[in-house]
Design a protein that fits this description.
It is a single chain. This protein has 466 residues and is of the alpha/beta class. It folds into 3 domains: 81 residues, Immunoglobulin-like, CATH 2.60.40; 256 residues, Rossmann fold (3-Layer(aba) Sandwich), CATH 3.40.50.1110; 91 residues, no CATH class. It has 10 helices and 23 strands. The strands form 5 sheets. Strands 1, 3, 4, 6, 7, 8, 9, 10, 11, 12 and 13 form an 11-stranded mixed beta sheet that branches. Strands 14-15-20-19 form a 4-stranded antiparallel beta sheet, with no helix packed on it.
């Protein structure tokens, strides 16, 4: 027998042997230590020998479920989960048992975006996180589980991940998203149920990289490079393929999104892209219109920005009307003039949490939105601005209001004095005798300090469309 023919037969035999005796294999997201969404039908999937039967037994109800593998060995089914609790086990059996241990039932959230979401509790080089050591010293919490996806990119959809579920402690938490971890920890404390938080974030990236290929229908400003060109992280859909696709289908209650810094110079279609991304994520995830809460960018001295940041402010605010079951956490008072990575991530996590507590978990007494611009009235040389979302009024905490500007018909804006009067803000300037328009914190570097009495900030706004 010729050597080449012998090798071919040997490889065929080995492949047949591996297929015959292949064991149940599971994706990284389905493993010991995971948190499954409570009171839902959660998806489980994996691979086994082609044409075989896989029995899945869940310890919380001692019921067995049967899956039949496809020709490629893949299988998928869903199982019902009870109220929060655990730890439990899940046993997979195709003739050989595979047991997952230490499984909790509770609430599951995804946190995604670019560097402000990626920024870990321990901070970046020379860029700290406020109270990081205190957070780390208090991180031993068995009811919080972390799943951090390593940064990766691909032009084709992947199913494998280099990641694992981990217990929250000072070491694992130090590496994890400061926004995501604090949201999960506070949610666990408020609801008193286990919380699993999944991190999929990559610094310096654009929204287009996180969108599925199907999401680009109708957009004319997206260029997809040829496969012969070296791949970069800001190509369309390469991060979705590598860092989102492998977990699609794993039941989540909601998603947190902190991104936009790399889209500030091309903001025109940002709101529509957010809408398209979320719509497609929800469609392929298959667990309904899960909650989607996101962070409006903070003021910053962008290089050669020329005040383009306010345009993305508006697009982010508009996205809330385009995306059902969504909410925006405002950070106009929580930025930094020296870094694009503001250190106070606690306040951001809290504001995301307020949206979740009220809108997702029904705690109606918890405020979630700051003042929202509603209307403008001109009275002599004064502009009177009215707001919604101010049930018991406005405040600047005994400090003068800042970052208000006013303009007349010449469309030239001047710094203005602004005072709270009941449930309105009165704006005026000696430079403008007949005001027409008002802007608030509508520049790249402009911070804001207008709040409702519940302590939540107003987002930057303008009354004009110039």
């Amino acid at each position: 027998m010729k050597p080449s023919k012998f090798l071919l037969l040997l490889c065929t035999a080995l492949l047949f042997s591996l297929n015959t005796f292949s064991k149940v294999t599971l994706p990284a997201i389905i493993s010991s230590g995971m948190v499954l969404q409570q009171q839902s039908n959660v998806a489980l999937w994996g691979k086994a020998k082609a044409g075989s039967k896989v029995t899945i037994t869940t310890s919380w109800n001692q019921k067995a479920y049967l899956a039949t593998t496809a020709k490629d060995g893949s299988w998928k089914l869903s199982v019902p989960t009870p109220k929060a609790g655990g730890p439990y086990t899940i046993t997979f059996n195709d003739g050989e048992k595979l047991v997952l241990n230490d499984i909790l039932i509770g609430e599951v959230w995804l946190c995604s975006g670019q560097s402000n979401m990626e920024m870990p509790v321990k901070g970046f080089g020379n860029q700290p996180i406020t109270n990081s050591n205190e957070l780390l010293s208090d991180a031993d919490e068995p009811g919080v589980r972390l799943f951090r996806i390593e940064k990766n990119m691909s032009r084709t959809p992947l199913t494998e991940l280099n990641a694992k579920w981990e217990h929250s402690n000072s070491e694992t938490t130090g590496q994890f998203s400061a926004v995501g971890y604090q949201f999960a920890r506070m949610l666990q404390q408020k609801l008193k149920v286990p919380v699993g938080i999944i991190q999929s974030a990559y610094g310096g990236t654009i929204i287009e990289a996180w969108m599925d290929k199907k999401s680009f229908a109708g957009f004319t400003d997206v260029k997809i490079p040829a496969d012969t060109v070296k791949m970069i992280k800001n190509e369309p859909f390469v991060l979705f393929n590598a860092m989102i696709n492998p977990i699609v289908g794993f039941n989540i209650k909601g998603a947190l999104w902190y991104q936009g810094e790399n889209n500030w110079f091309t903001p025109d279609t940002y709101d529509k892209k957010m809408e398209a991304m979320v719509k497609e994520w929800r469609s392929i995830w298959g667990c309904g219109d899960f909650s989607f809460y996101y962070v409006q960018l903070a003021p910053n001295a962008y290089p050669n920005g020329k005040d383009k940041l306010p345009v993305i402010y508006e697009k982010q605010a508009k996205a809330m009307q385009l995306i059902p079951n969504s909410g925006m956490a405002v950070s106009v008072d929580a930025g930094s003039q020296t870094t694009i990575h503001p250190p106070d991530k606690t306040i951001i996590s809290k504001r995301l949490l307020y949206w979740a507590l009220n809108k997702t978990y029904g705690k109606k007494g918890v405020a979630y939105s700051g003042p929202v611009y509603q209307s403008l009235k001109i009275s002599d040389n004064k502009a009177i601005v009215s707001f919604s979302e101010i049930p018991i009024g406005l405040t600047a905490y005994n400090k003068p209001l800042i970052s208000f500007e006013i303009a007349g018909a010449d469309q030239v804006f001047h710094p203005a004095a602004a005072t709270i009067s009941g449930k309105t803000v009165v704006v005026q300037s000696d430079e403008v005798k007949s005001p027409v328009a008002v802007r608030y914190a509508f520049k790249d570097r402009a911070e804001g300090n207008l709040y409702n009495a519940e302590g939540l900030p107003a987002a930057p706004f303008r009354t004009d469309s110039w």
